[in-house]
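Tutorial, part two.
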Amino acid sequence: MRIAITGASGFLGEPLVRQLQQAGHTVLRIGRAGGRGPAPDVAWDAATTLDARGLEGVEAVVHLAGESIAQRWSDSAKRAIRDSRVQGTSLLARTLAQLERRPAVLVSMSAVGIYGDRGDEVLDDGAAPGRGFLAEVGKAWEGAADAARGAGIRVVHPRLGVVLHPSGGALAKMLPIFSLGAGGKIGSGRQWMSWISRTDTLRALAFLLDTPSLAGPVNLVGPAPVTNAEFTEVLGRVLKRPTIAPVPEFAIRLLYGEMGQATVIEGQRVVPRKLLEAGFAFSHPTVDAALRGEGVA
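Running the prediction step on this input gives:
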């Protein structure tokens, strides 16, 4: 297939491009000229302009781009997080809807934060959105793809959990601390963590492109969510380091503010029902397998 990708130079985008090319697909990078990574094949400014001519004849689109949430949430940061997702998705969806030769599928990223803080409730792909900043952003983010849906394009929203890989994301920030034996559970440790290895994330994204029965929200998480205390114990065991230095909740709030509260102290117990029912087989079905399989040990 001819597949166009936004966010192609990022933590997920760069290895996804390699994987798709190795599978024989032609990949077009959508991005800003002069940005990070190789020059884009299709030029865009996520808020205002997108070269529609460059997308004619593309058979699939994967939309990964968005401002990082891993920062203190000032008012301006919140606007950037929301606008980068909603404006970029809306522009992309409207452009695809107006093409003479539309793609068959748009895989437009979302996140498990859309469920809000739900305690021990088990959340499958049909669970209702929750409350809070991330939930509101998630609802607007997914809704911004309505123009593509209305034009008959199959739209999939992978609701992504915490991606485990030592080269980036949350795990890259944890490893130096845990490797020194200074890691520990956060607060009570009872908050849930819905994780997925990067290997399975990339495999699942390709699976979504190739599986016409999947549309709408699809939870992109491993099959066995864990509590923060459980994750801490497994990471310590894999690294052969003690995990006896708990981090109090007030310290997270002091250091990271609302972002820390929403992403570390709160949590979601999410399960990948749609993926499993469609026949997706996880390479790393447990946290231990994910950490070892991604080269942490």
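The chain has ten helices and 15 strands. In part three we will examine how such features are distributed along the chain.
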